[in-house]
Design goal:
The structure holds two protein chains of two kinds. By secondary structure, chain A is α/β, with parallel strands linked by helices. In chain A, 35% of the residues lie in helices and 26% in strands. In chain A, strands 6-7-8-3-9-10 form a six-stranded mixed beta sheet, sandwiched between helices. A four-stranded antiparallel beta sheet of chain A has the order 2-1-4-5. In chain A, a hairpin with a 2-residue loop joins strand 1 and strand 2. The longest helix of chain A has 17 residues. Chain B has eleven helices and no strands. In chain B, helix 1 packs parallel to helix 6. The longest helix of chain B is centred in the C-terminal third of the chain and has 34 residues. Classes of the chains: A alpha/beta, B mainly alpha.
Chain lengths: 237, 278
Amino acid sequence: MCKVETKDISVYYHTGLVLDNVSINIEKGEFAVVFGPNGSGKTTLLKSIAGLIKPQSGRIIINGRNIDDAKTKGLIGYVPQNYEHGIEGFPATVKEIVSLGLITGNYDVKNHKSANHIVDHMLKLVDATHLKNRLINELSGGEKQRVMVARALASNPELLLLDEPTSGIDIKASSKIYETLGFLNENLKITIIMVSHDIDNAVNHASKVICINRHLCFCGNSTEFKATHQDSHLFFK
Amino acid sequence: MLEIFQYDFMQRALISGLIVAVMCPMLGMFIVLRKQSLIGDGLGHAAFAGVTGGYLLGLYPIIGAFVFTILGAVGIELVRRKNSAYADMGLAIFFYAGMALAIIFSSIIRMPSSSLLGFLFGSILTVTYLDILVIAFCAILTFIFIKKYFHKLMLILFNEDIAKVAGINTNSLNMALSIITALVVSASMLVVGVLLVSALMIVPVAAARQLEVGFKTTLFCSIVIAVISVISGLTSSFYFDIAPGGCIIINATFIYILLLILSNVWKKIKYNFKSITT
């Protein structure tokens, strides 16, 4: 389980301020969902927590450690947005993609037998065992997302970061993704932070809701959010 | 067919050809997926500038080639890192700049254009045992690097952000891959020519990708295709008395076209079978 804290982080791009003094606190084992309009800084917040963007000010602490420590120890599993163009034409089977999840800065795939076992287990967790020997390019959007989640889980992370995992897939496939994430959060106690536009579905599965529009608009539990859901647009003002 | 390999020069050509056939697709697999298929040509032209610059400064030409290709590789990688969507633009800039410098240097030292063409096309039939040692060293270096960092390089190709989150130093590995490519191109161009090295990095990989199999199988198949191209190319060049480098590349291209057609036919058969059964 993983605790995530951002303390007064601000990020500027050449186009201007994207995150303005955002402080959030996500407790161990929470399932947090991040909402906000387009260009509100959701992806920037997630990338900052993943260590891909260095905020100009403020601090990010994961389990009391610096972000770089957490990365090399494989604490973070990351499913990015728009990975599709990278997958296009990439000659790899689902098994090969999931086994890539075992690699961290300090660890490479050496024991093929145990790697195979882990891959099988991860695919079973996301209900994708039948896809093991298929090429990643042949899969549907929902299937690819489940494979990406399986890959992110392979290093046994304590924190799972997902950037719009249900965008561009149908309702049935996105329900399956939420089901899988809910299962991982409840049974494996993995802390999840997910960026989403799908407010209704995400809030039903999340325990914490974070709304941002460059600055923090709302940060509280999902029950509290649901009570004010009808006026959710007010959060973004 | 075996009688042609009784000649000493053909044995050396076969050994050097097979080494290049195994080494080039190993690097080529990563280069093609990084969308830098023309890097061999870009670096080859930087090497031209190095060779002519070496002559100009009174240095051994291979030293000039190594210096210019490594500088070129570093430059190309820095441009790619700044904006990966324009990776091909960086290649083109170094390609033209290398060629322009080579022309300027060769005009100063009055180097005949036939010498430059020698570097472009090389001659696999005139390789010496020392040449074989040079490319064998490059092949061993390439093999060790790819074997050690295979999965990390594969993850970087798949998604660089995911690799960074996993704690992999993507900048160092990308730079190391570019520098090894530069070393291979500059060492091999003096032996078998830029054209053959660049083509064997790309065409067998492009052909193997038509098979639509996994990453490791694609890599293995591309090496097999390169080996077949080298053996068939050398054999046909011997019997028809034509340029061996050209024969090897044309054979590899023929395999690519054949697999492209077969793959499309197979897809159509599969699609028709599916629509009948459903």
